[in-house]
Amino acid sequence: MSSFTAAIIVIGDEILSGRTQDTNSNYIAKKLLQAGIKLEEIIIIQDDKKTIIDNVLKYSSKYSYIFTTGGIGPTHDDITSESISEAFNLQYETNKTAFEILENYYPKGEFNESRQRMAKIPFGSELILNPMTAAPGFIIKNVYVLPGVPEIMKVMFEELIKKINKGKPKLVTTINTNLYESKIAKNLKKYSKQL
């Protein structure tokens, strides 16, 4: 059994409404299994400050790692960074390194006020670099804050997973059969007790 545990908090009204399908949690779950980190919970929550604060505090005290996806873009409903700052009573401020990364990424005159919001994170955070679109995620305490766009999240997670403490990977084997569950249930129960 792994000594490292995790939860995933998927943040976004677009997920809850069905407009967008969550593929991030499935991807992260597979990577955690390979890394020997036991994923114990996945929750999908709305873009609501109190909901984000309550869940981040609840899960960060319960598990080794918390991975959040969504809510760190440039629009008005991207409130994850601000909410996590408040959860841990940390100053929500412009990170100088993040600001410089973004300023260098955008063409002159296009690094507007909305885009500058993506450089605001909790004081004392460590950046998670983004090789695709520059806007970084961040780490604060045991909370790893990632974007919701799957292509970007995956690239950032690939680098992140290399750097965190891992357990012993769990071996999972899939056996396909044309038998009904009811036909093999008794034997499955017997063999599972031997493991």
For this structure, what is the CATH class? Alpha Beta
Question: Taking all residues together, what is the mean pLDDT?
Answer: 92
Strand content: 15-25%
Shape category: elongated
Judged by helices, strands and strand pairing, the structural class is alpha/beta
Q: How does the major sheet shape up? A: 6 strands, mixed
Helix content: 25-40%
CATH architecture term: 3-Layer(aba) Sandwich
Give the N-to-C terminal Cα separation: 12 Å
One letter per element, helices H and strands E, the order comes to EHHEHEHEHHEEEEHH
- Find the CATH superfamily: MoaB/Mog-like domain
| Strands, count | 8
Total domain modules: 1
What is the CATH fold-level name? Molybdenum Cofactor Biosythetic Enzyme, Chain A
* Quaternary structure of the protein: single chain
Description:
With 195 residues, the chain is α/β, with parallel strands linked by helices. It has one domain: MoaB/Mog-like domain (Molybdenum Cofactor Biosythetic Enzyme, Chain A). The chain has eight helices and eight strands, in the order βααβαβαβααββββαα. The protein has a six-stranded mixed β-sheet with strand order 2-1-3-8-7-6, with helices on both faces. The protein has a two-stranded antiparallel ribbon with strand order 4-5. The longest helix is centred in the C-terminal third of the chain and has 14 residues, at 150-163. The radius of gyration is 19 Å and the shape is elongated. The mean pLDDT is 92.
